[in-house]
């Protein structure tokens, strides 16, 4: 009696139609598609929850932006924003944190310069390596010894000495015998009188003893540009005239909070004026409104119902916004809206141009703000600071990276996703086992059918022989 066998390759049973003629692979796949329904539902839940988390993170980021702007606007001097102008293009000005309104006139006597000198023309510095000493205006000395007496090594040693002087080899024609000549251009790395220097052949002791040779006083050497400070004269032509100097062309101490940069001397007095920049002050208030509206706009768009109609079937499908029904974001937006519209010391924010609409959005009236700022600067500041303080506190409580209500909701939803993914992984193992069991079951069925078919054939042949 012979029997058929069912083979398997790499664990995949080749059972389709061996005996029964059934498409067992399709049967198993159909059964598995039913078995995977619970896992598919879990995966869909993960997708939906991740979308929800993404929306929570977006609105949380918008609330954090509001908190940042509110913190800045809450400062007692948030509207004390100043800008400066100059009456002469040779002088530029910029304001800083401590600026205050006022004006100042002065003349520019000189601009700062770095010392530039050149050595005499030569083909080589010396026959061998010799010490070189750089002496600064304050008497400090730096001595270096080049690798050799070549101009390249000397230039490199000077530049790398850390003394604040760079050396560059520059072509200077040829000698009578045709030898190429060069000069070293020596330049201070800083401007101002303090950057003046001398370069000598010899050690610091030689310089102190007066036996060193100053290469900038040798025949053919020269100081091309003298080191000098920039200077301006305040109240020129009066008994109160005062000269102020700077090692650079920038003065930071003429007036607190004002930086003055000069580019060339002036004959006539230059007047710099510092005044409150009402445009920038307005931006502080309008920026608070813009940040709040960004939150309400995002929330409204993600809690609305959207209907779409299929052009093929005519079926209308309604989709709810991902944040619709979420209590955390609803409460957060309501809290922010309430604090943003609340009176400050009995005065409505609308008195400085901040108003709430019937739709829950906010508008900013620039004209009303500018009028309030011009009429009562301190009162305008007080209302804005008070409003920003309460809004900032609410925004921080909502979006704090550790304890914020939305932050906590995000953390909770992330835990849900982790748990769902763990369930999905367990289902993957369970489904793999189930599929393997079905494959084994159908393989056994084909094997049994094969045996029965063989037995049937044998009995038929036996009966045939007996009859004969």
Comma- or semicolon-separated keywords:
468 residues, 3 domains, flat, disordered N terminus
How would you sum up this structure in a few lines?
The chain is built from 9 helices and 22 strands.
Structure description:
- The chain folds into 3 domains: 11-79 and 278-308 and 315-456; 82-111 and 230-276, no CATH class; 116-225, no CATH class.
- The strands form 7 sheets. A 5-stranded antiparallel β-sheet has the order 3-18-5-14-15.
- It has 468 residues and is an alpha+beta fold.
- Helices cover 43% and strands 22% of the residues.
- It contains 9 helices and 22 strands.
- α5 (278-301) packs antiparallel against α6 (327-341) and α6 (327-341) packs antiparallel against α8.
Structure class = alpha+beta
Indicate the overall shape.
flat
**Describe the biggest sheet?**
5 strands, antiparallel
* Terminal residue distance: 21 Å
> With helices defined by DSSP (H or I, 4 residues minimum), what is the helix count?
9
Strand content: 15-25%
Give, in spatial order, the strands making up the sheet with the most strands.
3-18-5-14-15
